[in-house]
Structure formats: C-alpha cells, structure tokens
Amino acid sequence: MADVPKLEQGCASPLELFNSIAAQGERVRALKAGKALKDEIDSAVQMLLSLKMSYKAAVGEDYKADCPPGNPAPRGDGGPDATEAGEDFVDPWTVQTSSAKGIDYDKLIVRFGSSKIDKELINRIERATGQRPHRFLRRGVFFSHRDMNQVLDAYENKKPFYLYTGRGPSSEAMHLGHLIPFIFTKWLQDVFNVPLVIQMTDDEKYLWKDLTLDQAYGYAVENAKDIIACGFDINKTFIFSDLEYMGASPSFYKNVVKIQKHVTFNQAKGIFGFTDSDCIGKISFPAIQAAPSFSNSFPQIFQDKTDVQCLIPCAIDQDPYFRMTRDVAPRIGYPKPALLHSTFFPALQGAQTKMSASDPNSSIFLTDTAKQIKTKTRRTRPGGMTSLTKYPLPEPSGA
Question: Of 2, 156, 221, 376, whose CB is crowded by the most CB atoms within 10 A?
Fold first, then answer.
C-alpha cells in the first residue's frame, strides 16, 4: 500500500497543500489502475477531497493542477518584484524584500513550516557536544531547523550521522556570504566528529547560467579551493563535482532516478515555479541536489547503508529542495534529512537582498584586494555594513 502523503508539522501553506494534492491524486490513480480494494480507493479519494477543501480555504479558489499558488512561486530566472505587495520573496534563486530591516525570518519560518532554533535547542547542542555553541547559533545567524532533535537523539544513542552541504559555483571566487554555511559546517564536523560531503553543483550552473560546461567545472574547482581553506578534516570530507561524480557512481545515479520517479511535473512546478519554457534539465535537477541526502549515494563512505541520518546546514533559500526530499524519502525507504537554516548575508547596499556573485558591487569576494574592499565599503549605503555586525568571521573575545 502506498503511503498517504502527509504535510510536515505546521507546513500548511498553499504551496505545500498544492504539492500534497498532486501526490494524493497520483496515489488515487495508481490504486485505481492496480484495481485495489474499493475501501482503500474510497479512503484515498476522501483524503484527496479533504486536501482540496483545505486548499480552497487557504487560497480562496479551487485547486487547478496546472496553476500552483502564486506565493511563493519561485522562478528560475528571478522572482517577481517582492516590493509590489510589500512581501518578502525567497526562493533558491531570488531573495528580495522591501523592508530596510531585511527578511522577516519569523514569518519565513511560518511560511516554510520549519521550527525556530530556540534557547532550549542551543542548550541541548551544548550538552551533547560539551562545547560552547558556535557564535552563529548564539547570534541567530542559524535560526531555523527541521528535525535537529532527531539528530541529537541519534548522536546521544551512539548512532552515526553525516553532514551534507554544497555550493553552486557561478563565479571564480566565493564571497563572504558563501562562507557562512561552510564556517558553521566546519564547527559541526569538529564537535560531532562526523563525515561530510560537499556537492559542487556545476551542472546546475550550466543549466541556469550563460556558462559552458568547461567554465562551470572550472568554477567548481576554484570554489573548492576556497572551501578547502576553511580547514575541514581531510580524512572525513568528500568534495565532488556533479559533472564528474554522476558518471562515476552508479549508486548516486540510482538514487537520482528513484527520486525522479516519485516527483511529478506538477509537484516540481509547484515547488520551484518551473514553466513550460524551462529546459528539462532544470526540471530534473532537484533530484540531483536531493540525492546526497541519502547515505548509500556514497558507497565508498557508507557502503550500502541506507539508514545513516543526514544533517544539512544551508541558507534557508535552499529549503524547497529539501522539502521535496523529505516528502520523497519515506516513499523510497530512506530517513528524512534534517536541516539547519541560516539567514542571508546582506548585500553591501543594504538588507533588502543578499550578497550575490552576479553583482560584484553587492559582495566582498575572497579574492578582492584591500583597495577593492575599501572602495566597495566606501560606496556602501547607510545600513549596509552596519547590518553585518552579527557575522564577524574571527571569534571576538567574549563573544
């Protein structure tokens, strides 16, 4: 019997309801095609009708398979003008707000259906590790999570877990905003003493950007150098390029295919805002970013184990990929990955958006000279650099 799709706790946004309706519709069709028992079909149909009623109550109109809710409806080529409705807009490609204070992260937690990292969780991390919590936890730079308590349960019961994070290499050098997840992941690796996999999504950047395959791979190599400089444990860290690893690892590709089979085009459109004019590479890519969440994608590290818990530290704009992953995981027999979400490193011009490799004037790159940094910060509008005070990279005394 197929699993009835369930919403994440607190995740009752129009988008999540839309995705659940699409999944439940697929299940009803499968039951009918398989000539399941009438009671089972009737139960599935009732669930579908209930989801559609919830959707209408939330959106104010009937569910339409080809019309995902407009907010948040990400677009691969940039989102709508968030300032039009005075609302924050966050997706894997666009971060925008009309507020000079920046993104309202409390509202984002509600909209995405995640959980706030509170003092109780921070204290539990301190007890489990015996280490003072990282300044990014104490200062709220990492502010949201999914199932971190389950990871701590596993750790306290001597069960293994591993870390997974990544980088989409769209420029020759990384900027300060890109460093945030890696600095924190380095601390997590040190205090928990666990393996780490780092995915370089050069294939993604080839699909989304005006790059050749050689350029995308070249950026991945250069960005990997910046990541290595963070000081990860060389014996417990695996950095890989999708363009290389996909062709060399049957186990990884098998998981990609499993994920692809369990996500419909309607679901992909609802989650990521894909349109009929998007290339099919974009539509299939989310399964590639999802695959490292499962331990048997790396047989050279975990052999054929499928039950090793995964913890993903990332900026919250990447969460749509892993909401999809968490929905698929139990249907293909794997544990759901847990997540720790960071805030966005604000652009030099102010907190209305984040630092971007596409706008050199918004960012301080790791290859910038002292003169370039001085010029950029002199041009900074009031509220730009002043908004960076919780992100100092060196550990200040008594912080």
Answer: 376
